[in-house]
Amino acid sequence: MSFDRNSSYFDASGGNTLKQLIESSQTQASSNKGYLLIEFEFDRELGNADLQKYNMWLAERRIERVKEFLSKGGFGSAMVSRILTAGNAENRDVRLFWCNEPEMPAEQMLADVTPAPREPFIKAL
């Protein structure tokens, strides 16, 4: 879902996309064994220190708006956010991925953890 330049607000299309995600999570509540990865990418090397600080703040704010919307709407699954700072193109998209939890006993979760498979739920719109 996209954001306007210098804005942390998504448009009605983005809101509709998130509503669909909430509805699908509620109808599949018992089979949702995983988490939603919320990802945003920007170029940390772009501009001076003040601009870099602003871009990081804006990235965090955009992710928080998505998480807040989902939480208020009743999205019940865990959410994890990630900000990628090695992007090389101007990008104002938050991407959402559903990640399945790996099948492993709880006592092994902190040792030998492999990345969860990522399935794109919603590609950048």
* Apparent shape: globular
Q: Mean of residue pLDDT?
A: 78
Query: Which class best fits the helix and strand makeup?
Result: alpha+beta
Determine the number of helices (DSSP H or I, runs of at least 4 residues).
Answer: 2
Low-confidence stretches: 108-116
Radius of gyration in whole Å, from Cα?
Answer: 16 Å
Q: Which strands sit side by side, in order, in the main sheet?
A: 2-1-3-4
Which range does the strand content fall in? Answer: 15-25%
**Strand runs, count:** 4
Helix content: 25-40%
Task: Tell me the series of helices and strands, N- to C-terminal.
Answer: HEHEEE
Sheet with the most strands?
A: 4 strands, mixed
Distance between the termini: 5 Å
Protein name: OmpA family protein
InterPro entries: OmpA-like_sf (IPR036737)
Organism: Shewanella jiangmenensis
Q: What would your notes on this structure say?
A:
The protein is built from two helices and four strands; from the N terminus they run αβαβββ. The chain is α+β, with helices and mostly antiparallel strands. Helix 2 links the parallel strand 1 (34-41) and strand 2. The N and C termini lie close together (5 Å). This is OmpA family protein.
Give me some keywords for this one.
22% strand, single chain, 125 residues, alpha+beta, 4-stranded mixed β-sheet, 2 helices
Indicate the topology.
Layout: H1 12-27, E1 34-41, H2 49-72, E2 78-84, E3 94-100, E4 118-122
Parallel strand pairs: 1-2
Antiparallel strand pairs: 1-3, 3-4
